[in-house]
């Protein structure tokens, strides 16, 4: 019932903001136009189409707002006027009451904000889909930001994820692509991710790890966590001063090297995914700033580390090999790796998959981002996936979302950026380092103690394994003997059945032959003269007797 009420609210919101006006009515089927007809009863209001979509997403809560944030980074797929409106969802969501904010902070710390901080700004610094941020100053003079989760947001997220789960189950059950797309698993992964975002202690730990990974790095700066002031629903971080990454006017005004900035964004992404295996998975423009120092060697600043991701070693390896094979245009290896990794069924013909991948990838190489329609590329990849029954990999969905954000950001910063030329050398270098003796020695030092701890058990484990192999041989031999005995029993039973049938047939034949003579002899003489019985009857009777004896 809760999901039903939420669905009704979504429909009412769509009607209130007349989202039907965004649809091309002339190309819709007649039955859909008929269903949309009641919406014409609602007033249109003087909103642009971008405002309609933005206001509807703001009304529906964090899941829809985050979807709008993703769309705002895709000017190649979404019209410019809509993108301009959706950018407001990145950090300008309507704030909740400051009295509630103060109450939450004071309840968590057990004292007033004036005691906790030297100065606290009552007006919000930023307001996003899940949390709100205010500026403050510690008693030692350090400037910080205070982040608090929106009150009641967990209930809204629970309703939305339940509704998404119902929709995913319907898709999985009734859609021809349901099982391949694995929508239920994807929704469950997203549910876990977004509920993790509500735990600010987890976000603080993520920020601390990310800061340690890029400590003293010229690529990325992560603000320091003030652990003494953090609680489950309150996060206090060092306040940073940077230029929003989408403020191109300020970036150009200080002569920022935009090509270098775009290339470093790609390098940061690949460094996080392949070297650190710990990547910021919510890199929409509202969470990224550019340091004002050294505009010729620009440095990124990342905030909001609530959502992070990582891959297991197998997926990390296969992903790198796949991308590298694509950069080398070795489509045969791309097809083989997809089969080896289990991303497509083992029965897939390598030659057919190779040809399909070549058809999708070949047109996009050696061209700048501005000349590439990644929307068309993704559509073609989807068609290829559908053709070869390629299952969606839930563990890679978060990575794909991050890659979309990075690509959209790179398009805005420097449209001439060639993503392939920037990423190719990095992957080549990473793959060589992965099997370099130093890397193998590092792995040995990391896992060596565990190996040495288990080493004394190896002889015993080997002996047990050999014993099991020997037992398997004995079991196999015993099963073979039982199989032979069973086959012999079946053969004998079959022979007995055949002999029984033959014996019965012989006796029946003998009786049939004897009946006429028996009747004649019985009528002519009191004593039977057996010499008058035909030889055929005696033969049939004898054969039947012999067969019955053999049967026994």
UniProtKB/TrEMBL annotation:
<feature type="binding site">
    <location>
        <position position="147"/>
    </location>
    <ligand>
        <name>ATP</name>
    </ligand>
</feature>
<keyword id="KW-0418">Kinase</keyword>
<feature type="transmembrane region" description="Helical">
    <location>
        <begin position="532"/>
        <end position="550"/>
    </location>
</feature>
<protein>
    <recommendedName>
        <fullName>Probable protein kinase UbiB</fullName>
        <ecNumber>2.7.-.-</ecNumber>
    </recommendedName>
</protein>
<feature type="active site" description="Proton acceptor">
    <location>
        <position position="282"/>
    </location>
</feature>
<keyword id="KW-0830">Ubiquinone</keyword>
<dbReference type="InterPro" id="IPR010232">
    <property type="entry name" value="UbiB"/>
</dbReference>
<keyword id="KW-0812">Transmembrane</keyword>
<comment type="similarity">
    <text>Belongs to the ABC1 family. UbiB subfamily.</text>
</comment>
<keyword id="KW-1133">Transmembrane helix</keyword>
<feature type="domain" description="ABC1 atypical kinase-like">
    <location>
        <begin position="89"/>
        <end position="338"/>
    </location>
</feature>
<keyword id="KW-0831">Ubiquinone biosynthesis</keyword>
<comment type="similarity">
    <text>Belongs to the protein kinase superfamily. ADCK protein kinase family.</text>
</comment>
<dbReference type="Pfam" id="PF03109">
    <property type="entry name" value="ABC1"/>
</dbReference>
<keyword id="KW-1003">Cell membrane</keyword>
<keyword id="KW-0547">Nucleotide-binding</keyword>
<feature type="transmembrane region" description="Helical">
    <location>
        <begin position="499"/>
        <end position="520"/>
    </location>
</feature>
<keyword id="KW-0175">Coiled coil</keyword>
<dbReference type="InterPro" id="IPR050154">
    <property type="entry name" value="UbiB_kinase"/>
</dbReference>
<feature type="coiled-coil region">
    <location>
        <begin position="462"/>
        <end position="496"/>
    </location>
</feature>
<comment type="function">
    <text>Is probably a protein kinase regulator of UbiI activity which is involved in aerobic coenzyme Q (ubiquinone) biosynthesis.</text>
</comment>
<feature type="binding site">
    <location>
        <begin position="125"/>
        <end position="133"/>
    </location>
    <ligand>
        <name>ATP</name>
    </ligand>
</feature>
<keyword id="KW-0808">Transferase</keyword>
<keyword id="KW-0067">ATP-binding</keyword>
<keyword id="KW-0472">Membrane</keyword>
<dbReference type="InterPro" id="IPR004147">
    <property type="entry name" value="ABC1_dom"/>
</dbReference>
<keyword id="KW-0997">Cell inner membrane</keyword>
<dbReference type="InterPro" id="IPR011009">
    <property type="entry name" value="Kinase-like_dom_sf"/>
</dbReference>
<dbReference type="InterPro" id="IPR045308">
    <property type="entry name" value="UbiB_bact"/>
</dbReference>
<comment type="pathway">
    <text>Cofactor biosynthesis; ubiquinone biosynthesis [regulation].</text>
</comment>
């Amino acid at each position: 019932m809760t999901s039903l009420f939420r669905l009704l609210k979504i429909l009412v919101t769509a009607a209130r903001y007349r989202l039907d006006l965004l649809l091309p009515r002339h190309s819709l089927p007649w039955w859909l136009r008929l269903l949309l007809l009641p919406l014409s009863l609602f007033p249109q209001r003087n909103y642009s189409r971008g405002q309609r979509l933005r206001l509807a997403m703001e009304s529906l809560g964090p899941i829809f707002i985050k979807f709008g944030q993703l769309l705002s980074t895709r000017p190649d797929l979404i019209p410019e006027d809509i993108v301009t409106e959706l950018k407001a969802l990145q950090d300008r969501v309507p704030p909740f009451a400051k009295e509630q904010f103060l109450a939450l902070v004071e309840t968590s710390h057990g004292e007033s904000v004036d005691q906790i901080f030297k100065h606290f700004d009552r007006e919000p610094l930023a307001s996003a889909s899940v949390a709100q941020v205010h500026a403050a100053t510690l008693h030692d003079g350090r400037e910080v930001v205070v982040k608090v989760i929106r009150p009641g947001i967990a209930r809204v997220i629970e309703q939305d994820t339940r509704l998404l789960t119902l929709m995913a189950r319907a898709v999985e059950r009734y859609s021809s692509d349901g099982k391949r797309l694995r929508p239920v698993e994807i929704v469950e992964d997203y549910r876990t991710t977004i509920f993790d975002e509500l735990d600010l202690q987890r976000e603080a730990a993520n920020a601390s790890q990310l800061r340690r990974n890029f400590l003293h790095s010229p690529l990325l700066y992560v603000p320091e966590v003030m652990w003494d002031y953090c609680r489950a629903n309150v996060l206090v971080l060092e306040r940073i001063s940077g230029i929003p990454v989408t403020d191109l006017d300020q970036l150009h005004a200080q002569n920022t090297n935009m090509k270098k900035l775009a290339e470093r964004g790609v390098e940061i992404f690949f460094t996080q995914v392949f070297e650190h295996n710990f990547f910021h998975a919510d890199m929409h423009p509202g969470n990224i700033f550019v340091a004002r120092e050294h505009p010729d060697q620009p440095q990124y600043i990342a905030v909001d580390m609530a959502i992070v991701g990582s891959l297991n070693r197998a997926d990390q390896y296969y992903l790198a090999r796949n991308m590298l094979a694509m950069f080398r245009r070795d489509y045969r290896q791309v097809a083989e790796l997809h089969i080896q990794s289990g991303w497509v069924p083992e029965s897939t013909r390598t030659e057919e998959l190779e040809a399909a991948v070549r058809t999708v990838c070949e047109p996009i190489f050696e061209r700048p981002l501005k000349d590439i329609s990644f929307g068309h590329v993704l559509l073609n990849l989807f068609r290829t996936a559908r053709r070869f029954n390629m299952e969606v990999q839930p563990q890679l969905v978060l990575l794909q979302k991050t890659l979309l954000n990075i690509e959209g950001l790179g398009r805005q910063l420097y449209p001439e950026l060639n993503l392939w030329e920037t990423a190719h050398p990095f992957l080549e270098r990473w793959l060589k380092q992965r099997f370099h003796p130093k890397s193998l020695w590092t792995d040995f030092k990391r896992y060596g103690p565990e190996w040495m701890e288990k080493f004394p058990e190896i002889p015993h484990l080997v002996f047990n394994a050999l014993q099991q192999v020997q037992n398997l041989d004995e079991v196999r031999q015993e099963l073979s003997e039982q199989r032979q005995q069973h086959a012999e029993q079946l053969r004998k039973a079959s022979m007995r059945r055949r002999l029984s049938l033959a014996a019965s047939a012989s006796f029946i034949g003998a009786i049939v032959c004897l009946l006429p003579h028996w009747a004649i002899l019985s009528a002519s003489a009191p004593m039977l003269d057996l010499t008058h019985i035909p030889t055929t009857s005696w033969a049939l009777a004898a054969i039947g007797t012999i067969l019955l004896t053999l049967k026994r």
